Amino acid sequence: VQLQASGGGLVQAGGSLRLSCAASERTFTNIMGWFRQAPGKDREFVAAINWDGGAFRYANSVKDRFTISRDNAEKSVYLQMNSLKPEDTAAYYCAARSNRVTVFSTTPASYPYWGQGTQVTVSS
Q: What one-character DSSP code corresponds to residue 103?
């Protein structure tokens, strides 16, 4: 497994979770992202971060509630999720763009590397 996501679970609305993604040398690239997919829905972009952690992109639905970060020494990416809502319930996936790419993308097809997903369930 080249990307290993963890940290999902069951939480009440208003609660917090922190997702982690451990990458390999090959899959820890310039642009790392998080996506999510709820049952019966398409996979959607959540957040992305660049190599030095100085630039970010967030979906409007999570802006001001979620924070993406990375630790290059640990080859890890994190997603801090606060003020969780039932509509945040989904499987969350860590993804990476090809290493030569330095621009953001919100399209799943732009990310060749994917983790196995971790389930987040928010109860009302």
A: S
Phi/psi at 56 (nearest 5 deg)?
Answer: -140, 160
pLDDT of residue 116: 93
The b-or-e profile of 112-122 (16+ CB within 10 A means b, else e) is ebbbebbebeb
In Å, how far are 28, 38, 47, 70, 82 from 2, measured between CA atoms? 9, 23, 19, 16, 27
Averaged pLDDT, 108-116: 96
pLDDT score recorded for residue 1: 60
64 with 48: CB under 8 angstroms?
no
DSSP code of residue 83:
S
25 and 3 Cβ atoms separated by less than 8 Å: no
Buried b (16+ CB within 10 A) or exposed e, 47-69: bbbbeeeeeebbbeebeeebbbe
